[in-house]
Amino acid sequence: MKTKLVFTFIVGMLLTQVTYANDHKVGQQLFQASCASCHGTAGGMDMNKRVAPPIVAVRMHYISTYADKDSFVMAVADWVENRDADNSMMRGAIRRFGLMPAVKVTRNEAEKIAAYIYDGDIEKPEGFQQHFEERHGKKKNR
Ligand code: HEC
């Protein structure tokens, strides 16, 4: 009886990890296909060479208001669905780069991408940490 429980528990743990790895991969691929051309590492931290803020900066702005995963995913997917400057969390970025153009992804895809961004295993342009600390002080980079 006990062995069976332990076994079920272990299989459950493994399945959870496999599902996480899978979702992460799907989110990452969707991000690469639909968002990375603007939010990727190209241009580094030189805002004159970039067309949009790096995704790690977007993540920071959103996570400071939407700390839990569900509300973060909703907020990012809502933005992708309807880019309304009135709801912007990054007005400085709109002034610098102009409003984000429409991107063709389904709601479901946008949510997968948002979850991937939230989980935080994302690319940072070189020098991001330094830039962040200079501008925002040595806060914990989460
Ligand atoms: C063609 C370039 C481009 C693509 C592709 C793109 N973005 Fe953006 N995005 C921008 C620009 C420019 C901004 C900064 C201006 C703004 O906030 O509207 C931005 C801002 C954002 C913001 C912050 C919005 C705010 O103002 O609060 C989020 C969230 C975001 N992008 C998510 C995504 C996601 C997710 C994808 C992929 C599905 C994506 N973007 C694809 C150009 C792009």
Molecular structure report:
The protein is about 65% helix and about 0% strand. The chain has 7 helices and no strands. The protein starts with a helix and ends in a 6-residue tail after the last helix. The mean pLDDT is about 90. Heme C binds near residues 38, 89 and 113.
Short descriptors:
142 residues, mainly alpha, Cytochrome Bc1 Complex, Chain D, domain 2, 7 helices, binds heme C
How many domains, as an integer?
1
> Which regions contain 5 or more consecutive residues with pLDDT less than 50?
none
For the record, the CATH class is Mainly Alpha
CATH topology description: Cytochrome Bc1 Complex, Chain D, domain 2
- What proportion of the residues is helical, as a percent range? 55-70%
- Tell the overall outline: elongated
Tell me the fraction of residues in β-strands, as a range: under 5%
Distance between the termini: 42 Å
Strand segment tally: 0
